[in-house]
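Lecture 7 notes: from sequence to structure.
We start with the chain below.
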Amino acid sequence: MRCKKRSNEKTVIATGARKTAALLLCCTIALFFLFSAFAAHATEVVGKFSAVEGRVEVMRDGKFPAAIASIGTTISANDLIKTKSDSKAEIVFYDGNILRIAQRSRIDISEYATGGKAVISMHDGKAEAIVPKQIAKFIVASPGANKFEIRTISAVGGVRGTDFFASYDGNVSEFTVKEGKVAVYNPQFPDAIVLITAGNFTVVEPHKPPLAPKPAAPENLKQYEKDVLPKKKEGSNSESKASLSEVSLLRDELRRFIGCRRR
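Predicted structure tokens for the same chain:
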């Protein structure tokens, strides 16, 4: 009887230990997936809207439903941005890059690694990209590890400078450089690269390499700026102060990032 009782006690203890181990294993797995999901989400956020005019929509990971964007709405890699008629938006990325989007545009943040590679796909519309000079220097010095590109169906514009406009309408792409340089090519003709300098533009038609650069008319540059720059709301001093403080924080982060890269 005593042996049988001891055997039963051992069985109960062993069963309890197995249950405890199984419970701990389940908790560990659940925590692992929870933290993995949290970390993945955290690393996906690359910037936020700093200005919104009219109706601007964001489709997370390019999927429905679309959310209405407002100042402070975050942006992640693979998000799709749509501006309606009479609508504009400005996005400040956490590495200091700025993207301004004109009305009736569809922009896809195809790839974005802060301080690394960034690919913006333009399905339709018009946009301005402003890249800090230090980031542009990194791109020129190490194009394999760093890049900032705006792509359309017929063209790719890669940053070699700091400020340029891109548009895509009726299968025709146009790149106009305000400051710095931009290398443009048609993916069908990857070796036919045209370097656009400040104050010039090029046009890329389907199945053709980029046209030779031509001077951009001053009125065209002004129209581009007018098309992409959102209006500041009246009586929004608090928002303006907040935006200035955010820009200051972004500049501090950029300085720290540059310091790390130099080391």
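Points to note: The radius of gyration is 25 Å. The first helix runs from residue 2 to 44.
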